[in-house]
Design a protein that fits this description.
- It is a single chain.
- The protein is α/β, with parallel strands linked by helices.
- It folds into 2 domains: about 60 residues, no CATH class; about 325 residues, Peptidase S8/S53 domain (Rossmann fold), CATH 3.40.50.200.
- Helix content is about 30%, strand content about 25%.
- The chain has 9 helices and 21 strands.
- The strands form 6 sheets. Strands 9, 10, 12, 14, 16, 17, 18 and 19 form an 8-stranded mixed sheet that branches. The protein has a 3-stranded antiparallel sheet with strand order 4-1-5, sandwiched between helices.
- β2 and β3 form a beta hairpin.
- It starts with a strand and ends in a 10-residue tail after the last helix.
- The relative contact order is 0.18.
Length: about 400
């Protein structure tokens, strides 16, 4: 009997989650009657009968076929010359200043952040002295061969480079670097495993600038399975929905962890598929999952900060994502990139500052309140007056000041 590979998320005991609503797509509040200490995530080759049996099992929280994972690639990359010698005063990038990180007394002390991306260049001076816990979920070498993950990590916690401040939470001492994408790509199963790894390693904030490749999966079904485009699209849509549910359930378990352990939140890029003003695309998974904070990208304009033309809508929060200067892999320099991938680490860095504040005030980080604080920090004050909530969410994310 033929089998197909599936991702299965289940608990060893039956739980009854109850869900609330904070009024925002990504800010669902989930409480569980029992802590999810015994959740199990696995891949298995299943027959049709086995798959149906698992779907009827009340312990099964989600079941989905792995879908191709792709980098939410920068819309633009631009090399830049790093100042040869430090200026008298450190100058922060416009994005770091826009989220008011230089005004905050918080610096990420005591907080762990996970970056699930293309890895990191651990030799870049932006990460000097940091404890980088690297986990390779690909078949290539563990360090960053693309540069995307290095750039994102630099925005979250990078140290100053030749007098330029690129990082928001510069005193994070331990960063979890999950390499989920290599040149051979990856799958949603890889990302799901990396989320579980980051949670078990004690991450307070999980940052992801990757997405599910829906068009690529349709093409694969047409070319490799010799299917007509119409049934291929319908099949891809079915698995798309199943994968959104998978990441929603994973986000629930991440939130519920704080009922008995350290809390964590997931921050993800909304995607770069829009082409404003011609058309707008809704937030892509995994950011589309309920309980995952979707981040839109902002750029500078004469009227104030404005949604980037490529940024998908239905974001929960927005952050700087155009002309973002950060660490360049394979060198000791900085480089500029555009994309919701660049906005996401700004939000993740600010989340780390809010997590530090919560840790200092209460002795622990609690997922639901951290998510609420981050989303509530958004403001329209610096935005173009024509900004719409569907595009920018609650506005540009802001660091806690005291």
């Amino acid at each position: 009997m033929s089998t197909e590979k599936y991702i299965i998320l289940r608990s060893r005991e039956i739980s009854s989650p109850t869900r609330g609503d904070m009024g925002t797509r990504g800010a669902g509040v989930n409480t569980f009657s029992r802590p999810p200490a015994t959740i199990k995530l696995e891949e298995a080759d299943l027959t049709k009968r086995e798959r149906n049996d698992l779907r009827r099992d009340p312990r099964t929280r989600a079941i989905a076929m792995p879908m191709p994972l792709k980098l939410i690639a920068p819309v633009r990359r631009q090399a830049t010359d790093t100042p040869p010698s430090p200026p008298l005063d450190t100058t922060a990038t416009w994005g770091v200043k826009a989220v008011r990180a230089p005004e905050s007394r918080f610096d990420g002390t005591g907080i762990s952040v996970a970056v699930l991306d293309t890895g990191i260049d651990p030799h870049h001076p932006a990460f000097a002295g940091m404890a980088l816990v690297q986990q390779n979920f690909t078949t290539e070498e563990p360090n960053d061969l693309n540069g995307h993950g290095t750039h994102c990590a630099g925005t979250i916690f990078g140290q100053d480079v030749n007098g330029t401040r690129i990082g928001i939470a510069r005193n994070i001492e331990r960063a979890l670097i999950g390499k989920v994408l290599g040149e051979g790509g990856g799958t949603s199963a890889t990302l799901a495993k990396a989320i579980q790894w980051a949670l078990h390693e004690g991450a307070h904030v999980i940052s992801m600038s990757v997405g599910i490749d829906f068009p690529g999966y349709v093409d694969w079904l047409v070319q490799q399975e010799n299917m007509n485009v119409n049934p291929a699209t319908s099949m891809a849509l079915e698995e798309y929905r199943a994968n959104v549910n998978l990441f929603t359930e994973l986000a629930r378990f991440v939130q519920a962890y704080s009922t008995f352990g350290q809390g964590a939140i997931i921050v993800a890029a909304s995607g770069n598929e829009s082409n404003r003003p011609k058309y707008e695309i809704s937030v892509a998974p995994p950011a589309a999952g309920t309980g995952i904070i979707a981040v839109g990208a902002l750029g500078e304009s004469d009227k104030g900060l404005k949604i980037a033309e490529f940024s998908n809508n239905q974001a929960d929060i927005s952050a700087p994502g155009v002309d973002i200067l950060s660490a360049e892999a394979g060198s000791d320099k900085l480089t500029s990139m555009d994309g919701t991938s660049m906005a996401t680490p700004h939000a993740a860095g600010v989340a780390a500052l809010w997590a530090q504040r919560q840790l200092e005030m209460t002795g622990r980080v609690e997922s639901q309140s951290l998510m609420a604080q981050l989303i509530a920090s958004g403001t329209y004050a610096a935005l173009d007056p024509d900004s719409e909530e569907d595009d920018v969410g609650t506005g540009i994310v802001q660091a806690p000041l005291n």
